[in-house]
Prior knowledge:
It contains 18 helices and 22 strands. It is of the alpha+beta class. It folds into 5 domains: 3-144, 3-Layer(aba) Sandwich (Rossmann fold), CATH 3.40.50; 149-255, PAS domain (Beta-Lactamase, 2-Layer Sandwich), CATH 3.30.450; 291-394, Beta-Lactamase (2-Layer Sandwich); 401-463; 468-612, Heat Shock Protein 90 (2-Layer Sandwich). Helix 16 crosses helix 17. The longest helix has 42 residues, at 397-438. The two termini are 102 Å apart.
Amino acid sequence: MTTIRVLHVDDNENILNLTSDYLEAAVEEPDLEVQTVQRPEVALDVLAEEPINCVVSDYKMGEMNGLELFEAIRERYPTLPFILFTGEGSEKIASEAISAGVTDYLQKDATTQQYELLANRIANVVEAHRSRQLLGERTRRLETLISNLPGIVYRCRNEPEWPMEIVEGEIERLTGYTADQLAAGELTWGDDVLHPADADAVWKSIQRSLANDGTFEVTYRIVTADGATKWMWERGRMVDVDSGGSDALEGFITDITERKERERELERRTEELEELTDELEEQYRHLFEEAPVMAVVTRAEDGRPIVDDCNHRVVETLDYDRDEIVGEELATFYTPASVRKLLGGGYKRALAGEFMSENRELVTAEDEVVETLLRAVPRRDARDEIVGTLALYIDVSERKALERQATRLEEFASIVSHDLRNPLNVAQTRTKLARQETGSPHLDDAVRAHERMAALIEDLLTLARLGDRIAETESVALGHLVERCWADAPTADATLRVETDRTVRADRSRLRQLVENLVRNSVEHGSTSSRPTTDDAGVAVTVGNLADGFYVADDGTGIPEADRDDVFEAGYSTADAGTGFGLRIVEQVADAHGWTVDVTESADGGARFEIRGVEFGA
Length: 618
């Protein structure tokens, strides 16, 4: 139930009480709560403290009459309803009351009906006051909303020119025109603002929408007063028919130029992304096809791998057509042992996200076995779910063959080291003892032959066991190492010149092998006995610097140019005492370090071996 709080002002206490009782009982709704005061001054204090909806006042009340009280109240509460309820009835008082602007005027009489009439008057004026307040609040809110809307609120006639009747909001900011220009008909939205290229399409689109449900929503371009083009979004509806017979539309228009620009930028980037995706797809396809290993894409069906795609190396290696491989189970191309690994947990681990690295044996169309090293990674879909694998198979058949060959070579080296060296040691010892006992010159040849056999065994073991392997490199003082090698080698009357103080990064032990063999080669092949001269001086060996390495040169007879391509072949030698493996060991050591070794003529006409690509240390 609605309650109306009434302040009744009258200097007659009896009238106050009587009126209050009648008013509170006069109507059931609204409920009237009456507060009474006898002095107008007190009424002002009550209004300052209490929420009063209506003031009812007598006219004649001592020092301040009812109209004077009204004036005082209006200054503070300009819209508060005020009813002059007086027994001093006259045309003059009524005229003054109306001129002053009181809400209502009612003359007292001797009947009780006057209280019912007064109650109705109070209810009416308060209801009217509340309605005006509500309307004012709604109007204020609407004005606030319109003033804060990022666009235009309008009412126009539904005609191709879209003549505006009401237009409010950010008209000038959006169009460069004023609201007055549009509302006064100086220009129309359809002819002067709407982009000419969009006018016909907008008209047809709105009419179709209106015919459907009386509402519409369109996007179009406008041309502003300064010639700029902007994008607008508009929503509206049909509201009534005006007196001229034209439908009236009301709606809202806002600027979406930035959104359109973002959309265009997004479209542009999307196109670029699609182009990039196509390029990446093409690159992926190229890399997939040209990968130096066999590549297979699988999908999981009931936990079993099905071949979705494969590159040409798979086709070439297995000797099947591509369509004979794609769509088949991967296990079809495995040996039984590899199938057990695949289905016994290998593929399941890959589907669980594990990166696989295992040996696999593939079977070709001719039932030949291809040994491979498998590298399998999970394959994910757009939702990042694992749906299969990308499997890369590295053909290690040759490597496995080399490993088996290395194993056999190691077995051979073991035999040479044990089964040949031991009886050779016995033969050497026995021959030397026999030479001491008999003095036979034939035994000298046997001793030399045994020594050559021992040298051959040592070089063969070096070639077989070390090959092109090196340990960790370290900084090695080259000159000091050369001098140590020279001191430990049988150099007879040969001489050494060390012209380097560099430090090189190398495997010390293997670098020593290289130097020892080069020194021994110079001494054996460049000795005086092999020179066409009577000079008995020994060969001179020089070790010096190169820009990217070092050289070992002698002043001996040199190596004919026609033979230089053969000197690094195993077994090549021009000296009777040579094994033919020394320079082969030199080349292996150089290769193991990533160096190159070449032979040329020295400045003194002898042999010069140049080692390049050397890394120098601190």
